[in-house]
Write a structure and sequence with these properties.
By secondary structure, the chain is mainly α. The chain folds into two domains: about 100 residues, no CATH class; about 110 residues. The chain contains nine helices and two strands; from the N terminus they run H-E-E-H-H-H-H-H-H-H-H. Strands 1-2 form a two-stranded antiparallel sheet. Strand 1 and strand 2 form a beta hairpin. Helix 1 packs antiparallel against helix 2, helix 2 packs antiparallel against helix 3 and helix 6 packs antiparallel against helix 7.
């Protein structure tokens, strides 16, 4: 679902990237700075991770609001991610329990992977709708790519669960900040053969 009410506009790619990834990097830097500190707020002790999570939520929402204002739209993935960040980040802060925020990537990837699976069972590529025509592919190509992305998402969901449940918070933060992004980047980097074989006429002309 796209946001409505504003015409989609082009924005400087550097600004767009900063708004999309800036909050994540800010979370990482703030965590390294405050991870070993404890804060007493309203008579309750909060570890640095919880305090950083509390600050991350409004920063992320402000960045998404600025992105919507500049571009006139937000993708479905961004909207779902924003909702889950507010819900599970809020639960972590409210209950003073970092497990909820750590589970968030698992639920995001399960939701997207499950949605793609439902679309595939209907003979449709819902990934094509999410990516909004950024990769011109024939129908067969979209179906293959959707199956692969579905497996990627479900694998990342399992990997996130293994890491946060068995490893330190430091390890999870590094994985969340860099590992997940690198995994998705490398995945698409190795899809060149698929894009070449199943590219649409629009891709060929470009």
């Amino acid at each position: 679902m796209e946001t409505r009410g504003m015409e989609k506009r082009q924005v400087n790619p550097m600004v767009k990237t900063a708004l999309e990834f800036g909050p994540i990097l800010a979370f990482f830097v703030a965590y390294l700075w405050l991870k070993d500190r404890t804060f007493v707020i309203g008579g309750t002790e909060y570890e640095g991770f919880i305090v950083v999570t509390a600050g991350f939520i409004p920063v992320f929402l402000l960045a998404m609001g600025a992105l919507w204002w500049l571009t006139g739209h937000l993708s479905r993935m961004q909207l779902v991610t924003a909702v889950l960040i507010v819900v599970f980040g809020g639960l972590s802060v409210w209950l003073n329990d970092d497990r909820f925020f750590k589970m968030k990537p698992t639920l995001i990837y399960l939701l997207f992977g499950g949605a793609l699976a439902i679309g595939l069972m209907r003979g449709e590529s819902w990934l094509q709708l999410v990516m909004e025509g950024l990769i011109p592919l024939k129908h067969e190509g979209w179906m293959i790519l959707t199956r692969r992305v579905m497996v990627l998402f479900l694998s990342l969901a399992v990997l996130n669960e293994v890491i946060w449940r068995t490893m330190s918070t430091d390890t999870w933060v590094y994985f969340k900040t860099f590992g997940l992004t690198a995994a998705v980047f490398l995945f698409f980097l190795f899809q060149g053969g698929l894009f070449k074989e199943h590219g649409s006429e629009e891709t060929d002309s470009e």
